[in-house]
Amino acid sequence: MKIIFHSILYLANLLLALSFLPWFIWQGKRARNNMAPLTDALRNEHTAVYGNGDGPAFQLLVLGESTVAGLGAKDHHGAITGSIARALSGKVGKVQWYAFGRNGYTLRHIAERILPHTDGIQPDLIVLAIGANDSFTFTPPWAFRRHTDLLFSGIQKLHPGAELLLAHMPPIRHFTAFDPVMQFILGNQLDLLFWILKEKVEAYHYRMIDEKLDLKRWARNNGAASADLLSDGVHPSEKGYELWGRRIVGFIKD
């Protein structure tokens, strides 16, 4: 019944999106034109060690889309992977982090094109940051279920001893690059993906942060303006990455 219900909601939301298609295309182009390009540091540096301590470093692997690629930051130290590792080192000591992300990649792309490159890494923890691109491309729920199985089963095969934490879903309804109509429709698609991921995370015995990010409240609680947390209306700024990384670490078990 869940599959049928999700399919009906998806098709209804897709029809609504198609009625605004020219407007969607224009806003999408405008958002892409405002995105800062990836720096050489983001392209070339994918691992580093933070913190001190004797013995082996805690191994952190972060997989995902543009936020893991680091859009909105100068380098990975200021993006989400570095922000998580920096906060995590305060808990566990020495942390070696690995960032594997690509702008525009969906869950299927991550499973097929990124995950195989992590063979040889032995992570203690995998953090997964996804959801935006499968929302922007309106991935059908039946396909998203298959892609989630593909990724999670692949992770279990390559990294059987690793814990996995699915980070917050992107706060699309607060993306200032989009108008309220686009926020609403894309937010509906994101909600569908969230429900599927929650079901799959439980089935694979992984963990998920189901807290929704309210940028206005989040900024207010951290003494910042909500506009300061986004670099281009879609991707986090370095301040946004720092706060997000600390929040993620708050959900990591000691």
Descriptors for this entry?
254 residues, alpha/beta, Rossmann fold, six-stranded mixed beta sheet, 11 helices, 11% strand
In percent, how helical is the residue content?
40-55%
Separation of the first and last Cα atoms: 38 Å
Given this structure, which CATH class is correct? Alpha Beta
Q: Into how many domains do the coordinates divide?
A: 1
Quickly count the helices.
11
CATH hierarchy: architecture? 3-Layer(aba) Sandwich
Strand ordering within the main sheet: 1-3-2-4-5-6
Return residue spans where pLDDT drops below 50 for at least 5 consecutive residues: none
What share of the residues does DSSP label as strand, in percent? 5-15%
What is the overall pLDDT average?
92
Using the coordinates shown, work out and report the CATH topology. Answer: Rossmann fold
CATH homology-level superfamily:
SGNH hydrolase
Q: Give the number of DSSP strands.
A: 6
Pattern of helices and strands: HHHEEHHEHEHHEHEHH
* Backbone structural class: alpha/beta
**Rg, alpha carbons:** 18 Å
Which word captures the global form? globular
Description:
The chain has helices at 2-19, 21-33, 40-44, 66-69, 80-92, 107-114, 132-136, 141-158, 180-203, 215-221, 238-249, and strands at residues 47-50, 58-64, 95-101, 125-129, 163-166, 207-208. It has 254 residues and is an alpha/beta fold. It has one domain (2-249): SGNH hydrolase (Rossmann fold), CATH 3.40.50.1110. It has a 6-stranded mixed sheet, with helices on both faces. Helix 1 (2-19) runs antiparallel to helix 9, helix 5 runs parallel beside helix 11 (238-249) and helix 8 packs across helix 9 (180-203). The chain is globular.
